[in-house]
Amino acid sequence: MTGVMQGHFDTVLWVYGLTTAGLLGYFATLLLRLRASKAPTSGQTRVSAQNPEKTS
Amino acid sequence: MEPIAQCFTLARKELLLQWRTRARFGSVLVFGVTALLIFSFAVGPDSTALKAHASGYLWLALLLMSTLSLQESARLDVQNGALEALVLLPVDGRALYYAKALVNTITLGTLGTLLVPIVAVLYDASAKEGVGLLVLSVWLGAAALVAPGTLYAVLTSRARAGDVMLPLLLFPLVVPALLGSVKATEVIMLGDPMGRVYSWLGLVIAFDAIYWSLCGLLYPLLLED
Amino acid sequence: MPRKTTIIGILGILLYIVGCYDGLLVAPADRFMGDIQRIMYVHVPCAWNTLVCFTISLVAALGWLLSGARARAEGRAWKWDELLEATTEIGVVLGAFLVVQGMLWAKPTWGVYWTWDPRLTTVAVMELMFVAVLALRGFVDEPVRRATWSAVVTLVAYVNVPLVYFSVKWWASLHQVQSSPSTVDPAMVLPLRINAFAVLFMSIGLMGLRTQLARRQRQALLGESDSDSTASSGGAA
């Protein structure tokens, strides 16, 4: 590493792009996992919560 | 019964167990010798390179052997329900840990000591700083591998895919101990003009001190449920 | 709780856009390293926040281990386990970014993707240790056991981080002297600081989502195996 390093702006863009894409990707998978976890659980609790009210 | 007396009683039990499963001990030793032989195939028949890296191969072989012997020693407890029975007894959890860790150290230290002559023959290694110091470094390093290894083995032997999980947890953790042991053994084997051996051994001893106390404190927590 | 962390997370995204714009286009190029120095504006914030995440994991591990039997029976201790799961995973994600960014930076500066620089090696080892925590969580089904075990492993792994750093530093220094970019010009501090908070806020936003996911998964698990514990944990939540 002697003198001033020239160029390499493409590497910088790669790093920024990959980091942003990674953050977005993780965010998206998290949302998908949350949606997948939501459906059966809330359905079950709604059914089980409604049933005793109807009988009583 | 006080914890120290408990610890020695338990250690006697563990030693007896080791003695009764000595065929297993022999197989692990043969496994280590095979590993040493395989490492030399990976490098090729370059005797100077092999000699220079002999201590690295010794420690890699010992690291691989440690997962086998640690996992087996914990598996025997879990398989026969012995661990649950021991927890029911009025025994200090720390005594259980130190007994097991002590016997695991004896096993691994013996395995390591037995590997030293094999390394000397296969790689033409010699102990320029004395055989006593070499064996000491092997035992200190073995104790460093065993301290977290005993803690993790009791955990992975009760988890699914435990045989994969033990090295996955243990290998990154023992990096400092491995570095110190490899360098200490290396300078003992190749000669130590700059007197660095004690600083490397110091690193291993520091690792030993931290993990022998920390893991002893944490082990009872893993038996609670 | 999710709403507050969501607002912080959105704030983090906005800050991140400003910080990246400032870092890429506004801040001056480094006198010696040129444009490549701009990697610092995402690299260093990731590094700081990886450590922040793992430190919160340690706090969560201690919180679970020190929680009494009553807090566990009433379901109040579960928040520690949810937090540990969330911060460990986010820390691992940030740590993975960190390693890749470091490699891409190392190639033009040092000519190789990997050097045995103490920081690089320590991050790699730390990353593996916490990946192992997540892997262990995947292989243990019983929630109390999983919480205790992962707390113990997190504690042991965290204690090891400084030990790895100093041993690798010592080990590498006997072979080579590694130069590292450490001087920071005052004009470059602004994007660095903006992005540090941006990544922190985004991590907090992600933590909110991830703890929610952890809670739902645990409740679903307990609901299937044991109806009594669902009732108690549902009442506590």
Plain-language structure description:
The complex is a heterotrimer of chains A (about 55), B (about 220) and C (about 240). In chain A, about 85% of the residues lie in helices and about 0% in strands. Chain A has about 55 residues and is an all-alpha fold. The longest helix of chain A has about 45 residues, at about 10-55. Chain A is rod-shaped and about 55 Å long. Residues about 40-55 of chain A have low confidence and may be disordered. The mean pLDDT of chain B is about 90. Helix content of chain B is about 85%, strand content about 0%. By secondary structure, chain B is mostly helical. Chain B starts with a helix and ends with a helix. With about 240 residues, chain C is an all-alpha fold. Chain C has a single domain (about 1-230), classed as Four Helix Bundle (Hemerythrin (Met), subunit A) (Up-down Bundle), CATH 1.20.120. Chain C is globular, with a radius of gyration of 20 Å. Mean pLDDT of chain C is about 85; it is low at about 175-180 and about 225-235. The interface of A and C includes residues 1, 4, 8, 20 and 41 of A.
Mean pLDDT of chain B: 89
Share of residues in strands of chain A: under 5%
Major β-sheet annotation of chain B:
none
Strands of chain A, total number: 0
- Along the chain, the helix and strand elements of chain B come as HHHHHHHHHH
The coarse overall form of chain A would be: rod-shaped
Strand-pairing-aware structural class of chain B:
mainly alpha
- The N- and C-terminal alpha carbons of chain B lie at a distance of 24 Å
Helix content of chain A: over 70%
Q: Largest interface, counted with CB-CB under 8 A?
A: A-C, 31 and 40 residues
Bulk shape of chain B: globular
Q: DSSP helix count of chain A?
A: 1
Summarize the structure.
The complex is a heterotrimer of chains A (56), B (225) and C (237). By secondary structure, chain B is an all-alpha fold.
